[in-house]
Structures
1.
Amino acid sequence: MRRWFEDSGHLIRPALVLLAGVGVFLLIRAAVVPKAFGQYGHYRPAALGLVRQHPLAYAGQEQCVMCHDPQATARQAGKHAHVACEACHGPLAAHASDPSIKPKLPDVADLCHRCHEKDAAKPAWFPQVATAQHYGGMKCTDCHQPHNPHP
Amino acid sequence: MDITRRDLFQIGGKLLVLASAGATLEQIVGAEAPSDAYKMADHWWGMIIDIDKCIGCGNCVRGCSRENGVPKGYYRTWVERYQVEEGKQPTVDSPDGAMDGFPPLTRGDLKAFFVPKLCNHCADSPCVQVCPVGATFVSPDGVVLVDKEYCLGCRYCVQACPYGCRYLHPGTNTVDKCTLCYHRITRGLTTACCENCPTGARQLVDFKNPKDPVHEFLRKNKVEVLKPYMATRAKVYYKNLDGSVR
């Protein structure tokens, strides 16, 4: 190696070692940093897909209405127009994708009072009853039609 | 063939340069673009909550729990009942996160109301800022998510969240939280909590959609976010929020 000035080897050799160090760093970094890390920010973009893979439990209102027209029409006309089917009937994505899976009918004894039990913290506009005094042991559905509940 | 020490170093050096250049190139080019109809850049998700419509039925809590398989005793969303008496600290209860609603409150002489809570999907999230490994982040469409395959379970974010919205999942030992039902909203559905809300007290909104009702909601109502002094730029807006709510 031609010498540019006396003792230039003292500079060249550490520089080569430094370069090799940087190279090793880049290699290790490539091995351990996940693919495409940092594409959108300081995280793995694959995580977005991971979260999106989660299966549905609730099919969504539009799915129910596609088949259950009589109930949907009755509901649309009454005070429960803005209550989604699955809010009472429970998560039914499995039934929506395979109608042979029959869901259980909801138990009114466990259902109506959740919304309509009297509570001083509930807004005044919301219809409430103290169930113990209201129905005297009868079922809500003996008098009220759940899809169009106004008496 | 004789290989001198000089030759060995030269060959080794060249190989190292090539390998590291290749690895760096792979990092830059290897990024895969998501290929479907949902465009993240077209959305900026949030939620609006109308306190005067919440009846404390707990439908949102049950819906969230069933949709997302939230472990028992943990909540991604929950409902609090406030009872505010003049000159006293407010009384707040939330039995089992309101999973089964509330025992009836009979005292009618108090200011009482329900406050549904969930992750505020802050644009400047303290939880994201403290994560040492990049396992939690604000997605390009404004949802704060956790990468459960990358989370160490160090719980810095659980402590950093001013709203108490995160927990360590007992099964995976990684941090878990509200995803704003990311798997639903990216398929054009609403969140499980909003789907289940019988009074429309909570509504998923998209700030980037000019036709979204959120614009009228923000224009016409008196709204507030939780803990505005934390400057987290929370995106869950409450209508008629009382000052006693923490």
2.
Amino acid sequence: MLILTCPCCGVTAEETEFHQGGEAHLKRFGPGSSDDDFHTYLFAKENPKGAHFERWRHNNGCGKWFIMARDTVTLEVYGSYPAQTHEPPKHIREAITARRPGWRWRGFA
Amino acid sequence: MSQFASEAPPSVTFPAPARRITIPVELGPESPKDTARMKRYSVFAIAREALRDHMGWERAWASPEPRKTYDVIIVGAGGHGLATAYYLGKNFGITNVAILEKGWLGGGNTGRNTTIIRSNYLQDASAAIYEKSRSLYETLSQVLNYNIMYSPRGVIMLAQTEHEVRGYKRTAQANALQGVATEFISPARVKEIVPIINLDGPRYPVLGGLWQARGGTARHDAVAWGYARACSAMGMHILQKCEVTGISRANGRVTGVTTNRGDIGCNKLGIVVAGHSGHLAEMAGFRLPIESVALQALVSEPIKPCMDCVVMANTVHGYMSQSDKGEMVIGGGTDGYNNYTQRGSFHHIEETIRALIETFPMVARLKMLRQWGGIVDVTGDRSPILSKTPVEGIFINCGWGTGGFKAIPGSGWGFAELMAKGYSPLCDEFGLDRFYQGRFIDESVAAGVAH
């Protein structure tokens, strides 16, 4: 059971109060984009064995979307931050580096 | 003091063994034997061994040292990988094959599933490969000379909402056109087949079911062991505790793999590693439309026979059958987020059990013995990927998601053809290019979440 903290309302609760909504920091491609870009946006998944960034929603709480950094192997939660953030905050990247030196996730490191 | 306390201990004399027993010590990966001779298992073999203290049984497969290079390397010695290797040898005469396994043979999802076999899928491409698979299961024990305990006891998928009723009626019609024998049955018939069921559940009453009489179960470990024994007998190398750590390429073509047992060269590479497919694809330099999640299962204490078919309740995520040992084998839902933990979220157990108790009130007081998880590789359309890849010579067989066990023989049959000839009618629709082309084989609606 994950214990998560919503960065919007500040509540810390069990995972059943939240819902995962796919990979975070996606760059969206729509009509007019190339087939490759559109395919990558829709289907190519990071699916990492290690640090992962996902969108979560505080379903049974404030209802807001946010982004969470989590480890898919150890289930450690590195931290969460608002959905409007374009790249992971420094303290979260440092927390990941402490556990997984040399990690990479798309453009982030 | 007990009245028996003063009695002398009974003297028991054991008959002397007919001959001195020596324990063979050449076990394990150091075994010098390169390939195993396969002795046929039969009633005569049992009689012969009974007469000589069972000292003549041999190891079912050899544990050789890796060669420098192979024609074909299969990564992953689970059911799908071993079946692929077996049909490469059997159907195409390719036997210079190594099957690499990072752990032990059949220790991944092959040994973790709930052993359900069925082929009642909606789409034609799915029905073709799953029905091929189911029909291969029918005679697999005889073909492999290894008892895989295929038991066509029948599978019911319960319809518990109006949408499921409509969906399963549609599937039954599609199956009739595909030549797969299924029928939509009434609640009364469901009760007749499964007397322990409660039709009037408080949340989800049973409104009918999709019944496949020739679906059923098989012994999952035996499927892997049977294929492994047959592969080894053809001279193939099964290399356990051999983890692939890198994939080497030259000019866009695969040249071999790096493992913890050294570099091994190959002409063709088949990646058949289920939940870890994304990880290996990354080594080969491409990404997959796959997400890995934990799916869990549990078994109860053994009880007397009470249910002689498989029941799947897809709306409430509960799947149950009774093993030959008497344990109720229960499959649950997948985790709601990507992970590689092989155990699964705790609250899913509660949800699964709650659903089962509503449907089968008599299981309410059963004790659960074991719970475990496996990492399943889920695609967007819930259909597998059997495909060439951007790297020449690398083929991938993955994305079986929550329902790969039933597909083992058919998947191996088709994927071996794809690897040997570069084309297979069974696999044609399941290429990676379908995601570029928007040509999905959508089973997520047809099959619910369950497989």
